[in-house]
Structures are given as structure tokens and as C-alpha cells.
Amino acid sequence: MKKKTIAGAVAMIASVSLIAGCSGAGGQDADSGDTLKVAAFEGGYGAEMYADVVAAFEKANPDIDVELVTSKTLAQELTPQVAAGDYPDVVVLGQGAKEGFTEGFIRDRGLEDLSDVLDLTVPGEDVTVGEKLTEGIVGNLNTNPYGDDSVYLLPMFASPTGLVYDQGLLDAHGWEVPTDFDEFFALGEAAKAEGISLFTYPTAGYLDSYFFSLLAAAGGEDFYSDVMTYEEDVWMQPEAREVLELTTELLTEYTAPTTVGYANGQDFTKNQQTILDGTAIFMPNGTWIANEMADAPRSDGFTWGLTAVPAPEAGGERYLTTFVESAWVPAEATHKEEAKTFLAFLYSDEAAEIFAATGAIQPIVGLADGLTGDSAEFYAGYSGDGVKALVGSFAATTPVPGVDLKATLFDSANSVISGTMSLDEWQAAVNDASNKLGAAAQ
Prior knowledge:
By secondary structure, the chain is of the alpha/beta class. It contains 16 helices and nine strands.
């Protein structure tokens, strides 16, 4: 795959909803009136926005019926359907989920080429889909997973992910947002004196955006690309060692003591609550956190903020990992042309307005400029001095039995905090997993 993982563009957000699989042989066009089956992950922005968009689409396309099913466990529900040959026509689910559902389709070359969707005129408008998208959001490993010019995943939503915090808490103590790790750890010491922890995470998997940003900041974009594409022994490089050293100090010296106990699928919101309570300052997360914790109690004067992960050195570039939710069409889908029509409609002003009302901002030119409230605070993170957007994740490879690089890198944080894994052991395990995936990718 090409080392083309960084987009220098400001991208946008979200989470999604789901639809059941469809029956019949793949690759055949539907007759008028046939049902288009769309599947999407229901995340922090809820499912209602999808129902509203589908209703608008059906009104504009009375000959196409859409069957929409939304779920928070999309991958688990679709897996047995797909195994039985029952494919949805459209899936809205990005890469990075623990189940690796989308990555499986990428590895198996099971995606429909959607390059032509970029040339489709957005229904009811006089611009193409490609013309509406922000610069740099297409053309990276997230949309072009094989490193060529073909687009297989369309960027539905994208959001800045970084360290979220309570600006009110910082203001109350006269603290500044740190831009490098010296300032970061100095703030940690000041917070300790007040009985406040510097850092927490919902679950260790949320460390993905933290690590991606810090890797790019430590070694630059070429180094980041080497990590994402499993360059041999890349984790033994001094830049990788620096990232793991800084993270080990953060985890063992400045992370909330309750973090590991709550870092699971049932209790993760308790870790998130520590930010709202003012007992921890920073947490890796994305813009959806405001919706997800909308009804949770919070400290007086609480105001959401989002900042890039500090740079290892003073004055260094900082990165906001841009989480992209993707829409794609299985190669075995039955109603491909209708699916592409639906995808084009999702970028219409009408659909964008529906999505944006929930805080789900699409990577459409100018859409983020008029944001207010929490969304405006989150997207303001891109305006920080020396802050760049980062798009991309680990390249998909043939599965290697017993190898899970994400678990080795992210989940090991729990063991580092508890003292059951040393820095050297962590580095060796991550490097070994990366090398095995690199060999599989060749």
C-alpha cells in the first residue's frame, strides 16, 4: 500500500446506524420498487437522523424503498448474515472497530469500486459529490485501501479526536492547555497537588487516536506511514521508543487510579464521568462524547474542549487524528446502482442539515464554518498553532493467527498501569506483532 495516510484537510464527524442484510445473488440491478437495504452503526449521534434521511430520500425517489436497521452492535449482527450469503446494499461502518468487519471486506477484496460516485451529481444540486468533499479527505488509505487511485470507501462523517477536557476546570485553577509533554507533565504535578488526575481513558482502545497523533508528532508523517504499513522493526526506532517512554510515564504517574477498573464495555462511562466531575483533566475521545454524555451530571461551569495530543518537544507539530466513518457497498450487493444513488443523496444539503442537527458533521466544504455550541468548540481544535489533521489507520493485511497489533499496543496500557508489563516488554511485543503483519502484507 502507498504511504499516503495524512490528509492536510479539516475533516468531520460521526457515528451511524444499521440495516439488515439482503437476500439474492449479488451484482444484479434492482427493478423499480425493490428494497434497498442499508446497514449502519449507531454511535453517539443516535439512530433518528438516519430514519429522517431515509424518509427524505424515499420522498425524492418514490420508486426506491429503503429498509433501515440501526444497531450499536452492527458488526456482530452482520457477520452471520454475510456468512450465510445475505449482504446489505450499503454499509456505514468505518475501520477501527474491534471486530474488524470492514477490514475483512478490504482484505478479501469484497468492496465495490465507488470511484464513479465522486462524479455523480448530488441529487437536486448542480455539483458533484467529489466537488462537495473537503480537500484531502479522499485519496488516503482510509478511502483508497489498496494504495491506488480507486475509491472503495466514501467518507461519510469525520471528527477530530484528541484529548477532551473541561475548559471550566482549567480556568478555575488558572491552568493552560499544554502543547508539549514537559508542560503536560508539569500540569500533572500541579493537578496532583489538588487531588486531580491528569489523564484517563474510557477503554484502552480509545488510545488509538492518542498513539496515532503522538507517533506523527514524534517522527513526522513518513515515520507515521512506516508504522501504519508495518515497516520492519519500525517499533525499535528511537521515535517509537520515545512514544512508548512518554506514554509509560503518563500511564504510571498521572493516570486516574480508577481507570483500569472501569475500562470495559460496561463501565467505560464511569471513566468518562471523571472528566465531567473534575477528578481527571484529559481523556482521549471524539466529538460524539458531548451527545453520549449529554444527560450526565457535571461540574458548575463545565465547558467541553478538545486539544491535540502534546508534542514530544516544545514547538513541535501536533496532530488531531481525524476519525472517519465510512460508507461502502459490498461487491456482492444486489442493488448497486440504487446504492450509489443513495450514497450521492447522503451528501446533499438536505441530508447534511439532518445529520448536522445531531452534531454529525460531514466532510463537506464549508459545513463546519457555521457550527455553534459544543461542535464549534471541538472543531476549533484544528485552528491551534502547529496543529494538523491526521487521517489513516493501520493498513489491512491478511490475518495472522494469534496476532492482534491493536490489542498489543492499546490494551497493554492496562498492564503497564498495573505493573505487569514493562516498557521493554511492551516495545518488544508491539514490534513483533507489527513485523508479523508486515510479512503477511508482502
